[in-house]
# Entry
Amino acid sequence: MSRPRVAYYSPLPPSRSGIADYSALLLPELARRVDIVVARPGRFKRVPNADVCLYHVGNDPDAHAWIVDELRRRPGIVVLHELVLHHLVAGLTLARGDADAYLDAMEHEAGLVGRLLAHAVIDNKIPPLWETQPQDFPLVAEVLSKAKGLIVHSRYVADGARARGYSGPIWKIPMPAWPAVAASPERIDGTPVVGCFGHLNASKRVPQLVAAFERLRGRRPDAALLLVGGATRDVEALRLPPGVTREEYVPEERLWALMAGADVHVALRAPTMGETSASVVRSLSLGRPLIVSDVGWFSELPDDVAFKVPVGDREAETIAAALDLLAADANLRAAMGSAARRLAETEHRLDRVADLYAAALAEAAGIPIPAVEEVVTA
# Structure
């Protein structure tokens, strides 16, 4: 039986893109099931000969602009890693000196008001919309128009694509889980140790987390908070109270060690761009209890794995209450951690994800393959 030949478009290491790490994990396992030609950036590269093209699209223009250029030339299956692509579109238009294309994209998104706002951005009358309110102007329309099918990680993104008129096939496939690295846990001083991992920007609710930690430390003076990852200026400017340890970007092995050394992981996100959190999936592999924002993909996590915090005025208070509960109850931490590990070893298991990808790609190419677990369509 023939196997589909797939042209695979994605950033890859040494790019620091999270999607590059994702593809580095997925590719060897997927190559056991389909024939893969890995595409490379460069305008003079030959278009790969393939039954179907697979395009990984995220919001970073440095990592994904060349992929959208290729998608325009040859439509195919899009792995839509997030619903909001405003920053990507700005990179494809304004960064290339094509203001008209940005104006058109904003008008398509929001009519005359959108076009006027785009003019205001271009004329430096207002801050860039991709920095201040990208969730209000996702600018995903062109990518949807070129996609012969979508692979998504969440019902949230599937529903968002449908709400924007997308009528093609959609396959919901979980993000694959990284096998937990057997690194010795690196533990900072404190009990409990609360960890927050990944790029720290305005949407990660760091002020709310710090405020919650101060509440917790008022009741538990030995508590520690570990913030790991690069940060934007606004986050770097925060006053960090006693008990907070700050680490910049760390190598992969040390990241795993630091994550393994934390008792509770916190992954807040609002507003959501529809993204799936790689750091949360790593937390599942390590079997750590989670506190997340009750938005987007995070809302779809099972209740026995994560406390889900509504975004709003009582956010810091609710986070603090969840932290206090987990700090006081070792059995609860163990039960949530076990549920997290089971989720990583079942739904997010790498070979299962590769099976689902292969089934979706074979369906898109019209080539039957041996039966695997049924892929969820939306």
